């Protein structure tokens, strides 16, 4: 299959072509992820939020950011992905950390003290993230000019918040 603008139908899924913070607006959509149910997740960078769009819906719901859940404040999120258990992971770029959202709570996974560094347990502007088929988390560490691989153990992520 190839994309040919003369024969392929290109559809605007959501967005208004103008900057904004409404349910169908973005201010710098960076990272996107589509799950098995075709739900669209968008890292809305300058609105400091993650939006969730159900299939066929133009209006999204803020599921993370701006104090949701439990006072979580994102700072220019750039990446979003779900793991095999449907937990949401966020590359929180300017906070140089990776956040995992589970139901109505969150946990910091990497870079939890907000101090960027080049040590293996720190990031310097987490940019993008992805899982492999074994559950390993790969993170693009922007200003350290590296890709890091993290193996997440079920009991090693610490307490929420």
Automatic annotation (TrEMBL):
NHL repeats: 20-56
Domain of life: Eukaryota
SUPFAM superfamilies with a match to the protein in the record: Calcium-dependent phosphotriesterase
Keywords attached to this entry: Glycoprotein, Repeat, Signal
Keyword Signal: yes
Gene Ontology annotations for the cellular component aspect, listed alphabetically: extracellular region
The keyword 4Fe-4S appears for this protein: no
Transmembrane residue ranges: none
Protein name: NHL repeat containing protein
